[in-house]
Amino acid sequence: MSDYKFIAGDKKWWRQAVVYQIYPRSFADLNGDGIGDLAGMIDRVPYLKSLSIDAVWLSPFYPSELADGGYDVADYRNVDPRIGTLEEFDKLIEELHKVNIRVFVDIVPNHSSDQHEWFQAALKAGRGSPERDRYIFHDGIGENGDIRPSELVSHFGPTGWTRVTEPDGTPGQWYLHLFAPEQPDFNWDNQEVRDDFIKTLRFWSDRGVDGFRIDVAHALTKDFSDGLPARSTMDIDPTKPDGSDPLFDRDEVHEIYRQWRKVFNEYNPPRVAVAEASAPAHRLGAYASEETLGQAFNFDLLHADWNTKRFKHLISNSMKRAEKSGSSNTWVLSNHDVVRHPTRYGLPDKTDLVKWYISEGKSAPLDAKQGIDRARASTMLILALPGSTYLYQGEELGLFEVADTPREAMQDPQWFRNPGKARSRDGCRIPLPWATNQSALGGSSFGFGPGGSHLPMPADFGKYSVAANEADTNSVLNLYRTAIGMRKGLQCAEEIKFIFNWNRSVLHFARPNGWQSFTNFGKSPVKLPKGKVLLSSQPLVGNQVPGETTVWLQA
Ligand code: GLC
Ligand code: CA
Prior knowledge:
The N terminus is likely disordered. This protein has 14 helices and 18 strands.
């Protein structure tokens, strides 16, 4: 088991960390079965170290039927045998800690897999049993109970209720699932459910895990005292932005997190957490307070067009929110659920990403140069801001979204449960290309492993590979390495001051130690301000900052 002496004492490390998200099945495959594994991650620890990141966050690697890419967990305290073993997990933590990289794991508390032993027990135990009380079972409507209990949609399709067959073979009760039918929602009023998650948090903390990413953190507690919810979207009821929506962002959810915080604080240093919570902006702070999870993702940048005013506005708001909750900011440009940001930035503003995806990337022209220029500039911009930056594997290679995956190869339930209506998230989950040559390791997966890959990799993927990036001094990878490394030495108090510029395309700010970030959002060059240039996302032309470029300066 891992020794984490190197972090003892540093209780604030999470406030301004660079955290790199690994999607385990698509990172590196050591045994050549086409699925990324823990042994592959151990093998690539030197690569992770070369990024100068402070932590990795592992998306679920637990036993799962993969109805939702591993977010359908069948056993919270184990490793999927296709990904590895607990011993390998311990080894991975040990190797990462040796190079000062901390580890977050993903906790999925809203729902389990339908293969979880508790759900299987609930099916067998029948109506009214304590086993069923751990989930949300209801009788159907009508004489035979064959009408679903309420008109509720789910995130992945037309209904949030699925009917079970009772132990005697007759059609029976219905259970609630906000996501796929293979993801039954837990009943968080049930004490056993609460106790079991505490056990899980301790299990991983005892193994040396430093932090937790909490999936769908806003949905755990539900209140059906006014009847079962009926709704046609999965958004918070806009008339109830105050904690009174029966499904989402209820105040009671924080009782759970306050209890978790006590567990985190039993460790030295205290374990940390970040909430994936979809709640009105003014309510996010409650997830990010010192008494609860400590940090919450700010997803504003995932939806923001490339626009000075918009960026400035959302940065100011985030700074205010963080200050109010006592937390630090979080910055996210990509993750395993959204279209990769070089693609978003390369498409015309206001492109409908679902339509674009469904037409296999043909409905709007992608300007790849613009996409990458803006991606480089925005990464440097967010790295200069106070707070933590969450990076998603592959963005450091300049990967674009893959829109032309053959339909029969798709894995994402969001896609095949909503035919013709939704985007598949597989496009950002394609395995990483490590080698320029497709058959470098003897397989066909650009060095991902010695075999194939569980999702097909585009024929031109080699040009984005780690090897190709390493061979080019101006590559995206080299920019990430330099910028993240440099940021470590520049980091200071969590404050910024905007510096006025007559040019409306410029976003310029300074940190208290004189570190400045200057972004030209426009297409035409602008004059470089005074100061010593530390790094630029594009080569400067004389004393001009080219379009769509960020420069760091020291005043
Ligand atoms: C979160 C995850 C997403 C998953 C969903 C259900 O939003 O990021 O990938 O499908 O929760 O667990
Ligand atoms: Ca493998």
